[in-house]
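Dear colleagues,

I hope this message finds you well. In preparation for our joint manuscript, I am sending the MHD1 domain-containing protein (Coptis chinensis) sequence together with its predicted structure, so that both groups work from identical material. I would be grateful if you could confirm receipt.
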Amino acid sequence: MEEENAVELLQRYRRDRRVLLNFILSGSLIKKVVMPPGAVSLDDVDLDQVSTDHVLNCAKKGGMLELSEAIRDYHDSTFFPATNDTGSTDEFFLVTDPESSGPPPRRAPPSLEVYTPSPIMPSLSKSQSLLSTQHQEPSVDDIDDFEDDDYNEEVDSFRVSRRSTNEASDLALSLPSFATGITDDNLHETAYEILLASAGAAGGLIVPLKEKKKDKKNRLIRKLARSKSDHVVSQSQHAPGLTGLLETMRVQLEISEAMDMRTRQGLLNALVGKAGKRMDTLLIPLELVCCISRTEFSDKKAYLRWQKRQLNMLEEGLINHPAVGFGESGRKASELRSLLMKIDESESLPSSSGELQRAECLRSLREIAIPLAERPVRGDLTGEVCHWADGYHLNVKLYEKLLFSVFDILDEGKLTEEVEEILELIKSTWKVLGITETIHYTCYAWVLFHQYVITGERGILEHAIEQMRKIPLKEQRGQQERLHLKNLSSKVEGVEGFEDLTFLLSFLRPIQKWADKQLGDYHLHFAENAATMEEIVTVAILARRLLLEEPELAIKFTVVTDEDQIESYISSSMKNAFSGILEAVETTADSTHEHPLASLAEETKKLLKKDSTVFMPILSQWDPRATAVSASLVHKLYGHKLKPFLDAVEHLTEDVVSVFPAADSLEQYVMALITSACEEEIVNEYCRRKLTPYQVESISGTLVLRWVNAQLGRMLGWVERATQQEHWEPISPQQRHGSSIVEVYRIVEETVDQFFALKVPMRPGELNSLFRGIDNAFQVYTNHITDMMVNKEDLVPPVPILTRYRKEIGIKAFVKKELFDPRLPDVRRSTQINVLTTPKLCVQLNTLHYAISQLNKLEDNIREQWARKRPRENFNIKKSVDENSKHTIQKDPFNGSRKDINAAIDGICEFTGRFASKVLLDGGSSPLFTRLNKFIEEDLEVLKEFFISGGDGLPRGTVENQVSHLRHVIKLLGCETRVLIDDLKSASSSEVQGNRSKLGADSQTLLRILCHRCDSEASQFLKKQYKIPKSAA
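The corresponding structure tokens are as follows:
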């Protein structure tokens, strides 16, 4: 394949060189052109042997050009490298710059014979090629043989594609080669002959007058020489009707005028004496060989090549690829081959004997070939059709060459303006070539698609898709066409040996394979031009649907639905793209400080982003879940690389901190894409079926928990140390709390900062563990403070004996219930209690208040950092894969420490409240209160404000709760004695029934208030009712 491309490219360059030289020499760029000896016009000069440098130098100088000198310079330059004559005479430099010439060619140049021509060649004939083995200067007699060089120029210059060969080598018809070695040039010429015969059958064949040689010019040269304004009106300059259309086809097929005139005259001569015979029912190659003589060619070699082509066509059409099988007449095939060989051999015999043998063989050939060609087939009658060019696959190759004429010869990425007329004219050959509607649309779609691959013109591709849509499906074809297509098959050598291919397989499978190859790596082929991807997918889908109708392929096809086909493209391209990323990451791994798996995750995420935004909207037209397929595949590919790393992880390391966040970020993006691509009700099911979670959060959570537990253990040690070093002195006059609580908060905040500095995925469980650890630390701190306070029962003295006002003999009071605590003070125990001083107790109280007031700020700070670390907590994406994510953050994480701190504060305040209550109710015989003692209420307000400290102390609500019962006692102290006595009497009877008095006090409280009342009425009541002794005071 590479050798064929190399030869094709070389031939293309040679042809373009000739065209450009002809344009320069025919125009006004050069003042005067002097022909070499023996040449009359440029048609007599072999432009392949003219030095372009010599011509360009003359054009620059505006002087006269001698072509003999240009030819001499060309041959001189073939033996020496291009040099300049500047600088030292001992040094030579190449004129071309090797560095700017691009990379070296990747294929070897075609082999050429080495020869040594004479240093000076005044003129070279077209028939005398530089590749020939014998070289001599032509004589005048030789020059006379070149009277008509239009044909010689055409046959000597290999017709090759003038298009770019980019990616075209991957697109070739699956058809066998011809045994006779027929070339594309031969097919072009024969196709044109068939077109002329078909036009002649409609009466449109006219032989134009032969113009003078000096006025003849190649149409391509005339186009190149025209101005822009001339090009606009060029179409109107053609002859009208069929004649002008045939002239356009001649130019499009690159047929010389001489060849055209000979063929037209030969076909007209073939009809002489055949009354009622249509031109398209002739056995054209045989008739042309019989009607065109050697004398009509100026060159014998050209005639021999022309005759050889006609004989080869007869052999291919009647023997190798016949439309009608030989059956029992198989022996005629050998007879035909023998006659064809004899005709070919007759040219090497002496003139008389050669002509005789040729005439006899042609007569015998006609007797055998015409009956064979006119046998009926496909429902026609004898003589209606001449079956010599409609045998498969010769007919489709000829038809393909005709279809290629629809492209503009100057811009092959565009269709010519006469495309509709050309197609109608080409359809006139259907009868000769055995073309049906299905064959036409299939061949035309192939031609257009092939042209798109070469030129890259999107308009051509859209036109090809339009033709593919017109190809009838199996049920849309007629019975006769179905049978005809079923019989069209050829044996082609493939990778697994020879295989039988149907017509649709031969034409559509190359298209599908090319499209599949492009789409199988769409990240590469459509990276810069995604606009045409939709059309290529359409081509692939249409080709597959048509090929699925072939029974042989329906079983072999693993891809049945459009969705399967799209998913196969995604799978193939994603794997190729991921492999490329993996290779790039491995290449740069040594030069970067990041772990390769982290880099791979980042690059994979970029790939997935581009895939989901550029390519998936296109592929989703055929597969709505294309995005989910792509994302799940990427998840799987990266997961294979990540798993060994996850299995080996045991501790939090730099690699873990680098890889885990990148892997988790990729997984989250994959989940987001799947959620957006699938219906909400099937997301969970799809994820369970298609995804194997990385479990990064689970593994990372285990590692984080180990770290948290270690940090909390150290934190508790620091808390213990801080409390042991605390002296319970205020930090400053403004900050009345102890220094230990500040140190504890510093330790906690450092631990929190370190926790959130871990750039690894975490679950709420790890945060809850941190909360519990901090809560436990504050509980330990609070318990240390409460442990330092003595038991309140040890500080409160025993309740003294109740006494009444006035001096009377003390007797023990007898009441209905026990009115006093019988315990006696334990002097020895009291001396052993280490009681904190009041200032230190106040510092403790302030410290506890500071601790609980800062807890809210700490909790808010932690929650804010968690929200920034895991914004996806607001979504339910992860829950479909990882059920562990269902754990939520605790609502009140510091509930335990808050309760302990509040209990400690309440305990300290309760001490004060109980002491004040003891003074008012159990103060012994000394305190005596009148009803108008205002100082008690004032003292209570002073005490309350002391604890509040203007907002710097305890909360006002806390203090108010503690002094509320004292306010009630003070209110009772202000009541009249008679009211208190009546209420006590009612309370005594009510308590038996479980009720309180009217004033809301119990009998014990009322009794003690009356005992401390400085009032005779109260004293008499207590003496009479309760036998309470008088006070010693």
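For the figure legend, we might mention the following. The chain has 41 helices and four strands. Strands lie at 32-34, 64-66, 489-494, 497-502.

With kind regards,
E.M.
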